[in-house]
Amino acid sequence: MQNFFCKSFFKAATFSSLLLVSLSNVYGQDFIEKATVQGNIYTESNYYFSDTIIGAEEVPEYIRTNIYGNIFYRYKGINAGIRYEAYQPPLVGYDPRYEGQGIAHRFVNYSDSLYEVTIGNFYEQYGSGIILRAYEDKNLGIDNAFDGFRLLVRPINGLTIKGMIGRQRYFWENGPGIIRGADADWSLLQFFRPESLANLTVGFSAVSRFQKDRDPLYNFPENVAAFSARTSLFTGGFFFSGEYAWKVNDPSATNNLIYKNGESIIFTGSYSTKGFGFLASAKYIDNMDFRSSRTATGNDLTLNYLPATTRQHTYSLAGMYPYATQPTGEVGALGQVNYLIPKNTKIGGKYGTNIQLSASIANSIDKEKVNDTLAIGTSGTLGYKSSLGKIGDEKYFHDISIEVNRRLSRDLRLVAGFASQYYNKAVIEGHPGEEPVNAWIVYADIARRLQNRKSIRFEAQHLQTKQDNGSWAMVLTEFSIAPKWTFSLSDQYNYGNEEKDLRKHYYSINMSFNKGPHRLSISYGKQSEGIICVGGICRKVPAAYAAGITFSTTF
Amino acid sequence: MNKYKLPILLMCFMAIIISCDIVEEPYTNTIIQPPDTGEVLQKVLLEEFTGHQCPNCPAGAKIATQLDELYGDQFIIIAYHAGFFANTNASFPINYKTPTGEELKGHFGVNSYPSGLVNRNNGEVLGTTEWATVAADLISQEPKLKLQINKDYNTSTRELCVTVTATAISSMESMYVCVFLTESGLISPQKTNDDSDYPDGVIPDYVHNHVFRNSMNGTWGTNIFPDGAAIDDIETISVNCILNSEWNVDNMNIVCFAYSIETGEVIQVEEVGIQ
């Protein structure tokens, strides 16, 4: 025991020394010659035009640019990296507070079979993320990395213990809250029966935030903690996981300063075998928005991630009304079946046919008044009463869809699908009084391989609705000469808009060129106002009319 | 058994670093206003950006009102109706937007609603839950400037003349003085997300208070103490304007504030009714 600690601290001290002397003589020339250096660069620039009819506002700078560049250094167990970012200024739709440039992320990490230690910036996730997840997603404009210290220890077979302390990134600064976290994950079968092919794990996490309270109106808790317990089982084709989380009083800008505790429970189960797959998940979320600042809103300083239980669509009109997880209260469920009709059968055809059926729903949770005089959600009170698992009356979302994927011949593939969606715009987008959207979507995608590594693809989609902006139609054609060239042309037409002036075409022309690790693409066109979501986390995208150039490379 | 000591120790250590505070009722604080001794007090200006189509803005106005009740005369509010949320349409026909409000919105980079600046501190646009903390810090500071407003209103011509006298309490940099007019008690529809009382999301007879109406000396005001001020230096400015006939003078206030030419932060603010 003592030896382990001595060794650990010796390594940590060595590691720190290495940092301080920066590539000193300790490792000599090996530190340079035997090291691995990798990196990547991504730049995107758009020249904006104004189009008052679609709502594309005039951009005073005309050109806006986002730039990201990562460099990673690796030598034996030492990893180090930096990321340069520049927003000159940020592309339309990204938070203007990103404007600027500099080293946004830097870290040094040492790892061996027993432990791993990181100083600087790092990302982290405990369990499914319902009490802690720091991650980066450029599409969403999210980077809530920690800046601090992280330790991971594997003291016995199957057991991983993690601890961390730090502050979260807030554009070019760090947020005001100090975050402390600990997590233990134990693979029981790996410990007791290492030869077993199955796996049973249990895990526990705890996270707390310290943020000073100097508010004259409210008595805020300075330390807010959340705890979770989880288990997962994997055996054969069967997988099950469940996690329960609980958070103490956390009055914040997102829950209208109520003092109620939060809780959440999430289950996922799946089964797969050759030609068949089944997935089901369910969740209950009650007042579980957790951030490293009680004053943060939007996507700022989010500490936890509440997974989506809705299907993420690939086709644009099917994804026009995506669901955003409601951290203040939601009950959701998803069921999905994949079945491969065997090849050389009457229905399956010569190559087999894949069918995917999915259904998801999200509802409010049941909330009751604390007493007769207080309205639900009144700030400076407990807010409301609720019971775990009790479903409310208001539907937020549903999506029932079927997708068929069939190879018609050696060179011809067809994907066709249908979806029925209900989208409670008032709740999901926070626009009270707005009419819910009932939409029907059909789409077909046919791709044909041609000679000399050429291929052509054609997509047709239609969204039928009487609400919001009315119905849409879309066509897309894409021609590729593998592996270098891709050309595409698409048009979304909002032909069903009640206002005739807004029945506009949103056309887009794209070209991309790939060579080895380099990719260059050019685009020109219009984009309608909307929302993009990844895993239930969403970002509002304003209407835009732009010509853009994107370049990326890795080395 | 030895191999289990480390994980147990680590888990105990991690349990220790996690902590939480359980807050019991009352959740709100009570502050007793100090008696008026006639001394010059540091006052705080909240410049709130709002709009009648902003569903979260009534909650922001509520926090502003709570601070107003808490600090009394020491807390002064201007509500700028600006940007997309203040646009008019058939459901929200009354236009509260002003060129000054739009100019300030653009200058301070206001993007989320409701939000506001408290004494233009660091030029930062703050969310509603940040107002109280910043106001508490600023209001406890020693005042550097005394502002005195004298007004003369002619009811028949609707001409308003305002004289502002600034007296330096400590030596200071040069500054600008703005003389703004606000109106309260304006009743018109307002979006809300309080769906328990207003399921259709609109309060039809919402009372808009502290609505910015006009500046008597432009968005950026009049320069005083151009070479800086020494203790007890005094400077006076006079401005005048004709009030719009649609404004209800009985509900109107004159808000006068001085801000630093160097930092842009508000040094002192005063408010009096026109009548």
In terms of per-residue confidence, which ranges of chain A show pLDDT below 50 for 5 or more consecutive residues? 1-13
| Architecture (CATH level 2) name of chain B | Sandwich
Overall number of strands of chain A: 31
Summarize the largest interface: chains and residue counts.
A-B, 58 and 55 residues
CATH-assigned homologous superfamily of chain B: Immunoglobulins
Counting DSSP H or I runs of 4 or more residues, the number of helices of chain B is 4
**Mean pLDDT value of chain A:** 90
CATH class of chain B: Mainly Beta
Radius of gyration of chain A: 26 Å
Bin the strand percentage of chain B: 25-35%
Strand percentage of chain A, roughly? over 45%
Structure characterization notes:
The complex is a heterodimer of chains A (555) and B (275). Chain A is mostly beta strands. Chain A has a domain at 112-307. Helix content of chain A is 6%, strand content 54%. In chain A, the strands form four sheets. Chain A has a 24-stranded antiparallel barrel. Chain A has a two-stranded antiparallel sheet with strand order 6-7. Chain A is globular, with a radius of gyration of 26 Å. The two termini of chain A are 43 Å apart. The model of chain A is unreliable at 1-13 (pLDDT under 50). By secondary structure, chain B is an alpha+beta fold. Chain B contains four helices and 14 strands. In chain B, strands 7, 10, 11, 13 and 14 form a five-stranded antiparallel beta sheet that branches. Chain B has a four-stranded mixed beta sheet with strand order 2-1-3-4. In chain B, helix 2 (57-71) packs parallel to helix 4. Chain B has a single domain, classed as Immunoglobulin-like (Sandwich). The mean pLDDT of chain B is 90. In chain B, 19% of the residues lie in helices and 35% in strands. In chain B, strand 5 (145-154) and strand 6 form a beta hairpin. At the A-B interface, strand 11, strand 13, strand 14 and strand 15 of A face helix 1, helix 2, strand 4 and helix 4 of B.
